[in-house]
Design brief:
Elements lengths: L28 H6 L7 H19 L5 H4 L4 H33 L9 H13 L8 H13 L6 E7 L2 E8 L3 H18 L8 H25 L2 E7 L2 E8 L5 H17 L10 H9 L7 H33 L1 H16 L3 E8 L9 E5 L8 H25 L4 H4 L4 H19 L2 E7 L5 E9 L3 H19 L9 H8 L2 H15 L2 H7 L7 E2 L48 E2 L21 H33 L4 H14 L2 H7 L14 H5 L5 E12 L2 E10 L2 E15 L2 E6 L9 E7 L5 E4 L2 E4 L7 E7 L2 E7 L6 E2 L4 E5 L9 E3 L3 E2 L1 H19 L22 E10 L2 E7 L2 E8 L1 E10 L10 E10 L2 E7 L2 E7 L1
Parallel strand pairs: 15-22
Antiparallel strand pairs: 1-2, 1-4, 2-7, 3-4, 5-6, 5-8, 7-8, 9-10, 11-12, 12-13, 13-14, 15-18, 16-17, 16-19, 19-21, 20-23, 24-27, 25-26, 26-29, 27-28, 29-30
Helix pairs in contact: 4-6, 4-7, 4-8, 4-11, 6-8, 7-9, 8-9, 10-18, 11-12, 11-13, 13-16, 13-20, 15-16, 21-22
Length: about 950
C-alpha cells in the first residue's frame, strides 16, 4: 500500500494548466515567517490559502468536500484511461503468451502431426469428446478475453447442455504474467498522464485510484460477458450446446483491488502533502519499520524468483522441448511460487474429492522438496542454498531499511513486524498459489469431482519461523558484515537514498512524540511540537550505513526550509521546540541515523578472510554433493543400465538384452531370444525415453516410455544394487521383480513336428507322437510362426503372427496349429481312382473283379460273348478330413459303356444268331485315404 513514507523526495510540482485552486489573496503570517520565499511561490501561496480556507470553514462549522473541490476533469479521465489501459495490458499479455505457445508447437517439428491448429483440435477433442475447430473467428475473438479474466483468479468453465441435462467443468490457473502486464500498463499510464497534475490530499489520490479500479473491473466484467464462447456441436442426431466462460464472483473485486493499488502507487509521487500524516507517523511509532516491511520480502522473492525462474525455464526447454518452454508465460510464475514454498521447507498439498470420475483419487497428499521422485538431489541442494541466500539478502535489506536504533530496540512490537508479515504472506500464498478444478454433470449419470494443488495449510507457520530467523539475522548477524558488501549491492538491497531519506523523516517524526504530533494536528511543515524524551536518542545508530545528505537527492527547485525553525527558545516560555519534519526539507538528513564508525582495516581483512574460507568450504561441499549426485544418477545411476537394456531391445540385440536382464527361464524357453529371430521381428520397439528414476535404498525403479508401432507406452524397470563400484552403487536389472519387457508366447506343436519356422528362421522342437505345448519368453515385437510338414499332402496352415506389445496384459497369446490336407491329395486320389477305372476297363469280363462297375447276365451265360469296356466319363471326387484321416466321395458320377454280342437264337438246335449290343452304367464310389509321408493308401467301398 502506498504511503507517505515512500514518496520520492522533492519532486518538482509546478502548477500546470489543469491545476486546481485560485491563488489566495492572504497568506498565513506564520508560514511567511517560516519561509520568506513562499511569498514568491504560487504553489505555497495556494497551499496557505487552502489551509486558511479550511481553518475558516472549521471555525464556521461547515466542512466542504475539500478533496473534490481541488479536482478537475483531468483528475477523472486520467484514472479512467489507466483502468482501461490495465485491462488492455492484461489481454495483450495473454495474446503474447498464446502466440509464444503456438510458436512452440510449430517449432516442435512433428511433420506427421498436421498443422498446429489440427493438433490443438485433436487435444481438445480427446479431452472433451467434441469436434471443435479452434481456427474459427469465434475462438480467436473469445479465448484471449476469457483467459485474461483468469488473471483475477477465477476459473475457466466449460458448460455443456443436452436434452435438458447439463455438465460443467472448470479449472483455475492464475495468469500472473498477464496480470503483471496490466499492472505495469496502468501504472505507466497514470504516471505519465499525471506529470503536471497536483494531487492536493491523500483523499484525492485514493479517489482517483478507486475510479481506475472501478473502470478496470467493470470493463473486464462487461467484455468477459460479451465474449463468452457459445457453440452448437453436432452430437449424433442432435446438438450439444457448449459455453466457455470465465465469469466469476471474484472477477470484479480482485481487479478493482489491483487497479486501486496500481494507480495509487503511480499517483503517490504526485501528492503535494509535505509532511507525514498522523496515521503514517502513528504506525511507525507503534510498530517501527512497518512501512518498509514489504521491501525485504520483495528482495527475497526477487532474488529467489530470478534464479529459480531461469532454472525452470531451462529445464522446461530441455525436458519438454519447445512447447513447454514457449508456454512458460502461462505456468512459470506460479511454478516459481511453488518452488519458493518448497524451498522454504513447506509443502504442496494435492487433494481431490471424487465420487465417480476416474483419475481423481479423493485423497490428499503432501509433497515436500525432498519427497522421493519430486526433485533430483542436486536440485534440492541448490534450491535450499538459494533459499538461504535469498533469506540473507532479505535480512541485509531489513537491517538497512529499519536500522536498530534505540527507539526500535525499546519497542517490543518491533520484533513482531517482520514475522507477522511473513505469517500473513503465508496465508495469502494459500490463495494466490492455488491451482484447482472441478467437474460435475448429469448427462452421463451423476458424477462430481474436485481437485486442487496449493501450499500446505501450515505454510503460514513455516513463513512465520522464517520471519523470526530473518529478524534475528538482521539484528545480530548482518551488522557484522553489511558494510563490507560492494556499494552497488548495498544500494540495490536498501533502495535509493531518496526513499531512505523520506523514511528517515517518518522515523524522526515518530521519535518526536506521538502525543505532541497528534496535538499539533500534523497540518504541515512548520508546526512546532515538544519532543518526546527519546527523540534525541533516535537520531543516531551504530548500525545504520553511511548515507549521503538528503539535500543531494532533493530537486534544486525545492523550497528550502529555514534552519532556525528546528530549534530555539519558545516565545515566552523558554522551552525548546522542534518543527515537524518535512519531506522537502534538506535538514531532514540531520535526523537520519549517524554514520557508523569505519571498521578497523585489520578487522575488516580478518572478517573478509574468514568469510572467504567459510564460503569456499561451503561451495566445495555443495559442489562435491552436486558432483556426487550427478555421477550417481548418470555415470553410475540405475538409469544407465535401463538405457543399455532399452537400446539393445531397440537395436534387435536380444542376446545382449538377455545378458543385461536375465529372463530367469530355461534354455528351451530362450529359443526365440536370439539376434536372428528377434532381429527379423517386425514392429519392434522403435524408440524410448527415460523419464525419471525413483531410488529407495538399494532398490530403484526407472520409469521410461517406449514407442512401438506408433504407440507410446510407459514401462517401469526394477533395479537393484547389491554391490559397489568404488564409492558408487552398482546397479543391475532386478529379474526377481519381473522385467516388464519380457512376455510369454505359447505354441501348440502338432504330433510328429520337430521344427518351427519363426520370422523365417528354423527353430527346433522336440518331436512327439502327440500334440504338445511349448512356451517361449520373448521381447516386444511381431512373431510370425509357422509349422513345416514332411508330406506334400498335409499342411498346418500359413504363418500365424503374435503381436507382443510392451505393457500388454500378462496373459500369454497361444498359437494352435491343426493339420489339413492340401489340394494335391485330392488330385492324387482322383488320379489313382481313375487309374483303377482304366485298369478295370481292360478287363474282358462282364463283372471285373475289384472294379466299381460290372454287367449282370440274365439267362444262359453262353448267349453272351466278347465284352469290351470303355470309360465314357470319369467321375469327380472330393476329399475331406476326418480327424487324422481323409475320406473321399463322388461329387459327380462317371459313365462306363459295355459292348458285347448276344445270341438271339433261342433254339439250341439251331445255329447261334449273334448280334452286337451295348449298354451304359454310372460309376461312383467312396472310401478312406491313408497318408504316410508322400504315400497314399485308398480303401474304396464300392
Amino acid at each position: 500500500m502506498p504511503s507517505s513514507a515512500h514518496d520520492p523526495a522533492g519532486e518538482a510540482r509546478e502548477p500546470g494548466p489543469d491545476d486546481t485552486g485560485e491563488l489566495s489573496a492572504t497568506t498565513s503570517p506564520g508560514a511567511a515567517r517560516r519561509d520568506p520565499g513562499a511569498q514568491h511561490d504560487p504553489g505555497v501561496q495556494q497551499n496557505a490559502g487552502a489551509q486558511h480556507d479550511a481553518a475558516a470553514a472549521r471555525g464556521s462549522g461547515h466542512r466542504p468536500p475539500a478533496a473534490l473541490s481541488t479536482m478537475t476533469a483531468r483528475h477523472w479521465w486520467v484514472p479512467v484511461l489507466a483502468g482501461v489501459g490495465g485491462y488492455v495490458g492484461t489481454v495483450v499479455g495473454i495474446v503474447i503468451a498464446l502466440m509464444l505457445s503456438v510458436l512452440g508447437l510449430a517449432l516442435q517439428g512433428d511433420s506427421d502431426g498436421g498443422s498446429t491448429t489440427d493438433r490443438l483440435n485433436d487435444e481438445i477433442s480427446s479431452a472433451t469428446g467434441l469436434d471443435t475447430d479452434t481456427s474459427g473467428l469465434r475462438w480467436i475473438l473469445s479465448v484471449p478475453f476469457q483467459l485474461a479474466a483468469m488473471a483475477a483468479l477465477v476459473p475457466l468453465r466449460l458448460i455443456l447442455s443436452f436434452g435438458g441435462e447439463g455438465a460443467s467443468a472448470g479449472i483455475t490457473v492464475p495468469q500472473y504474467f498477464a496480470l503483471a502486464c496490466g499492472v505495469l500498463t496502468a501504472w505507466l499510464i497514470a504516471r505519465k498522464l499525471s506529470t503536471r497534475m497536483r494531487v492536493e490530499t491523500r483523499g484525492v489520490q485514493w479517489l482517483m485510484a478507486a475510479v481506475s479500479g472501478l473502470t478496470w473491473a467493470a470493463l473486464a466484467l462487461v467484455v468477459t460477458a460479451l465474449t463468452v464462447l457459445r457453440l452448437d456441436v453436432p452430437f449424433f442426431a442432435s446438438d450439444i450446446r457448449v459455453r466457455l466462460t470465465a465469469l466469476g464472483g471474484g472477477l470484479f473485486p480482485v481487479l478493482f483491488l489491483v487497479g486501486l493499488l496500481s494507480v495509487a502507487a503511480a499517483l503517490n509521487v504526485r501528492s503535494t502533502q509535505v509532511s507525514p500524516g498522523r496515521i503514517v507517523v502513528g504506525a511507525e511509532r507503534s510498530t517501527p519499520g512497518v512501512l518498509q516491511v514489504l521491501r525485504p520480502i520483495a528482495v527475497q522473492f526477487a532474488v529467489f524468483g530470478t534464479v529459480a525462474g531461469l532454472g525452470l525455464l531451462v529445464y522446461a526447454f530441455v525436458e519438454g522441448g519447445a512447447p513447454a518452454g514457449f508456454s512458460a508465460l502461462f505456468w512459470l510464475p506460479i511454478a516459481v511460487g511453488w518452488l519458493f514454498v518448497l524451498s522454504l521447507l513447506s509443502a504442496l498439498t494435492a487433494g481431490g474429492a471424487a465420487t465417480s470420475l476416474t483419475g481423481l483419487t479423493g485423497r490428499s497428499d503432501a509433497f515436500y522438496l525432498w519427497s522421493e521422485g519430486t526433485v533430483p538431489v542436486w536440485a534440492v541442494v541448490l534450491c535450499l542454498l538459494l533459499a538461504l541466500v535469498s533469506a540473507v539478502c532479505a535480512a541485509i535489506t531489513w537491517a538497512h531499511v529499519r536500522p536498530l536504533d534505540e527507539r526500535v530496540a525499546r519497542t517490543p512490537l518491533a520484533w513482531a513486524v517482520l514475522p507477522v508479515t511473513y505469517f500473513l504472506l503465508g496465508l495469502l500464498a494459500l490463495w494466490l498459489l492455488r491451482v484447482g478444478g472441478y467437474a460435475s454433470g448429469g448427462m452421463v449419470g451423476s458424477s462430481n469431482a474436485v481437485f486442487s494443488l496449493r501450499p500446505a495449510g501450515w505454510t503460514c507457520l513455516v513463513f512465520l519461523v522464517w520471519g523470526v530467523v530473518i529478524e534475528l539475522l538482521a539484528r545480530f548477524v548482518v551488522p557484522a558484515f553489511m558494510h563490507t558488501l560492494p556499494r552497488r549491492v548495498t544500494r540495490g538491497l536498501r533502495g535509493s537514498e531518496r526513499s531512505r531519506g523520506r523514511a528517515a523523516v517518518v522515523a524522526s517524526a515518530a521519535a518526536m512524540g506521538g502525543a505532541g504530533l497528534a496535538g499539533a494536528g500534523l497540518a504541515g511543515a512548520g508546526t512546532r511540537v515538544t519532543p518526546a524524551p527519546e527523540a534525541t536518542a533516535a537520531t543516531s545508530s551504530a548500525q545504520h550505513p553511511s548515507a549521503e545528505p538528503a539535500a543531494t537527492t532533493a530537486p534544486q527547485d525545492a523550497t528550502p526550509y529555514a534552519p532556525s525553525a528546528y530549534s530555539g527558545p519558545h516565545a515566552g516560555s523558554g522551552d525548546e521546540t522542534r518543527v515537524l519534519p518535512s519531506y522537502d526539507d534538506p535538514g531532514a538528513t540531520t535526523r537520519m541515523p549517524a554514520q557508523r564508525a569505519p571498521m578497523d582495516p585489520a578487522t575488516k581483512k580478518r572478517i573478509r578472510l574468514i568469510a572467504i574460507i567459510v564460503g569456499a568450504l561451503l561451495l566445495l561441499a555443495v559442489l562435491a554433493s552436486v558432483v556426487f549426485s550427478v555421477l550417481s544418477r548418470t555415470v553410475f545411476g540405475p538409469d544407465n543400465q535401463a538405457e543399455d537394456l532399452l537400446r539393445s531391445v531397440t537395436d534387435g540385440n536380444a542376446s545382449h538384452a538377455a545378458e543385461i536382464a536375465n529372463p530367469n527361464v530355461s534354455s528351451g524357453q530362450r529359443a526365440l531370444l536370439t539376434d536372428d529371430v528377434y532381429g527379423a521381428a517386425q514392429n519392434r520397439i522403435s524408440s524410448y525415453e527415460i523419464k525419471d528414476t525413483t531410488i529407495d535404498g538399494d532398490r530403484a525403479t526407472v520409469n521410461a516410455t517406449v514407442t512401438q508401432d506408433g504407440v507410446t507406452t510407459p514401462v517401469a524397470l526394477p533395479m537393484v544394487s547389491d554391490s559397489r563400484n568404488g564409492l558408487f552403487k552398482s546397479w543391475r536389472v532386478d529379474e526377481t521383480a519381473g522385467v516388464p519387457l519380457y512376455q510369454a508366447l505359447t505354441v501348440e506343436v502338432p504330433a510328429g513336428v520337430g521344427e518351427l519356422d519363426v520370422n523365417g528362421k528354423k527353430v527346433s522342437v522336440d518331436a512327439q507322437g502327440q500334440p504338445h505345448t511349448v512356451e517361449y519368453t520373448v521381447l516386444p515385437g511381431d512373431y510370425a510362426v509357422g509349422v513345416g510338414s514332411s508330406s506334400k499332402y498335409v499342411t498346418y496352415g500359413g504363418d500365424q503372427v503374435a503381436e507382443i506389445r510392451a505393457g500388454s496384459p500378462s496373459s500369454a497369446p497361444v498359437m494352435s496349429f491343426q493339420p489339413s490336407f492340401t489340394p494335391a491329395l485330392e488330385e492324387d486320389v482322383t488320379k489313382q481312382l481313375n487309374a483303377t477305372l482304366d485298369r478295370c476297363a481292360q478287363s474282358t469280363e462282364f463283372e471285373p473283379e475289384g472294379c466299381p462297375f460290372g454287367y449282370s447276365i440274365y439267362g444262359d451265360d453262353e448267349d453272351y460273348r466278347n465284352p469290351r469296356w470303355s470309360i465314357q466319363r470319369y467321375p469327380t471326387y472330393s476329399v475331406s478330413s476326418y480327424g487324422s484321416q481323409a475320406t473321399f466321395t463322388t461329387d459327380r458320377s462317371g459313365e462306363v459303356r459295355l459292348d458285347y454280342q448276344y445270341n438271339e437264337e433261342y433254339d439250341d438246335d439251331e445255329p447261334a444268331d449273334w448280334t452286337d449290343r451295348d449298354t451304359t452304367s454310372s460309376v461312383s464310389g467312396y472310401g478312406t485315404v491313408s497318408v504316410s509321408g508322400d504315400e497314399l493308401t485308398i480303401n474304396a467301398n464300392d
